[in-house]
Amino acid sequence: MKQVSIGSAQQFQPRQIVCLEHDHTCLYAEVIEVVSARQVCWVRPLMLAIPADNQSLPFSSSKDLILYDLRQGSDLLWPTSLFRPALDTEVISLLGQLHNPDSSSVHNLDAPQQLRGFVNRVWQAYKSAF
Fold it and tell me: Which residues 6+ apart lie within 8 Å of 2 measured at CB?
């Protein structure tokens, strides 16, 4: 995972979309607030993007992804160093799929379990950041 330096991470703004990459998976979230004194970021998860065929990051096509809709889930308070700004070019098509009720790549039923598993894997991999 590419970690953002603390200096640039504190430049996140509310409503900005950020990405946390780990193990061929991307968590996209909206920044609610940055707590500079604690170097943490309060984020609202939007979606978890997992390649259908274990391709490496960045994703070659949004059609090759499984998306988990996390918009109805819990917020996270995580170290800013784990996030990077999400690029418009990577997020726009994913948000389009997320808002399309007919999209076959969007999954809602097991989204909370997928997020919980992702959170556990990231926490295990980066315990020192917490």
Answer: 21, 84
How much is the pLDDT for 108?
80
* Contacts of 24-27 spanning 24+ positions with Cβ under 8 A: 24/50, 24/51, 24/54, 24/55, 24/56, 24/57, 25/49, 25/50, 25/118, 26/57, 26/59, 27/70, 27/115, 27/118
What's this model's pTM, rounded to 2 decimal places?
0.84
Enter the DSSP assignment of 5: P
Instruction: Determine the pLDDT at residue 75.
Output: 96
CA distance 128 to 115: 20
- Nearest-angstrom CA–CA distance, 54 and 129: 26
Quick one: tokens of 14?
Answer: 């509310």
Residue 7 has pLDDT above 80, yes or no: no
